[in-house]
Amino acid sequence: MNKKIFDTIVIGSGAGGLSSAAYLAREGLNVLLCEKMNEIGGYLNNFTRKGKSGDKYTFDTGLHYVNGCMEGGDFLAILEEAVGPQSKNLNWNLVDPVKINRYMYNDFEYTIPMGFDNFKNSLLYKFPDAKETINKTFHMVNDIDQTFHKVMQITENIETKSLFGKIAAISRLVPIFPKLLRYTSKTSKEILRDVNDYRILKIFESFSGECGVDLEQGTSIVLLLAKHYSNGAFYPQGGTKALINLFRDTILRNGGTVMKKAGVTSIGKEGDFFKVVTQNREFFTKTIISNTDAKVLYSDLLPQEMVPENVQKKIQNTVPSVSNFYTFVGTDLDLSKYMTSGNVTIIDQNFFDANNQSLDGHFLTSPTLKDPNGGHSTKGKYSLEIISDTCTFEEWKQWENSKPYQRPIEYMKKKEEIGMKIIKLIERKFIPNLTSHLDFVEFATPLTNFHYISAPNGSMYGPAQIPSQTFRNFYPIETKIPGLYHCGSSTTFGGVAPCLSSGLNAAKKLLGHHKK
Ligand SMILES: Cc1cc2nc3c(=O)[nH]c(=O)nc-3n(C[C@H](O)[C@H](O)[C@H](O)COP(=O)(O)OP(=O)(O)OC[C@H]3O[C@@H](n4cnc5c(N)ncnc54)[C@H](O)[C@@H]3O)c2cc1C
Predict the structure, then answer these.
(1) Is residue 2 over pLDDT 90?
(2) Which of 73, 233, 417, 487 registers the highest number of CB atoms within 10 A of its CB?
(3) Smallest Cα–Cα separation from 247: which of 509, 56, 35?
């Protein structure tokens, strides 16, 4: 076996792993990034397939829009911190500002525009009879937003403050503490209990859906998605590959090493060093950042004697977020007749899959329409993705040990049956004649997420965003094992920006460890 020592080893190349590895490489550390799959990026990955016509279609999996990419926006700031001035090489397309998200329910529909005030005003215009409810709901969302902004301002860099500075910060927190406790401990449903108009409730319920939890269980913080696209939604030119390449190039340019097909099988200790073992090699380091799900890190990679008992218990009790069914379509139908670069969600509460499980939300997005010059399809053809939830892992679990592309015929049949049912629903409700214009079609199930990401139960956003698993209940970035740091969706809210940010936080804490 080859032995090699690195300053730090990053395990997993999702958003968090990429940002931490890029930041540390730029800080001059000798970084090794180990990714188990044959491509880096985790949920940022994309893939290309040939249709019957021979034309190619490119699909993104886990990024369809982000916010904060306008001049001075948060997302751009995170990116610049991770990769430096090269971040300016990536351009962003603004998703249709008038139709960021169109929700089509069985009995009504509503489209969210850019701008929080526009959102509120358009609701008031469409549902004048619900004026009081709308005002109350927006007041509530504003209050949650302001409470969190204040807390973030007060606690920013609190670790680096003097004792007096820390006491001063804590005393400023006292007056807002009751609200903070209320918002972090309540579900969205509890916060919205006075909203008695079912249409407004359904629209706000959609925000929970986008975070992979339902209104009954999701933390009230997911309601902040209502403000999320105030300054617009964005999509990277060239798709998610362009974003991944920005990180990869930064790591390589700064002397880092990126290893694909390098799944870590265990982490151990040899003297002062961690021993990181992949299928055929051993690497040594004093610091690690794991971008894997907490269950992978604490149950599969670390010997149990290194894992504190309370963490072992927490792992057993962690509820994963929901999983999804994907439908990837390449078509010669002119999709611009039906949708724009904005997303469309069709909610059909009467839609059941082959096992009679409700699969009611179908999120449609077209990379071609989001980025017409980005090479997602040839001219006149369109790539379309349909992400359907909630699709439970249990239904597919019996096939979890079979290999992708070699799964049994029963699995293939069930996948095809559900997928075609979804396509027919979209045809009936939204894109007529879709079935006669399928140049390419492929389906994927929760087993796909499990295979590619090692996401427990194929979860889309890491642990479910419920009060008992968010904020002070996130898995810590600085673990109890000295030198071991953690980032990604187990340590923060799901979504590309929070995960990138968690990678930066882990990297900064780790640098402090190196300086000790
Ligand atoms: C269908 C879908 C749509 C989404 N849409 C959006 C969207 O539009 N906007 C948005 O902001 N967010 C979206 N998200 C969420 C977002 O993609 C994720 O929250 C985010 O990308 C997760 O990043 P992460 O840092 O947790 O890493 P992950 O993407 O979870 O990656 C973890 C990496 O670790 C690797 N790994 C695991 N075990 C090992 C091991 N033992 N050794 C080596 N490597 C290992 C995995 O292979 C993977 O590459 C979506 C998610 C899904 C599933």
Answers:
(1) no
(2) 487
(3) 35
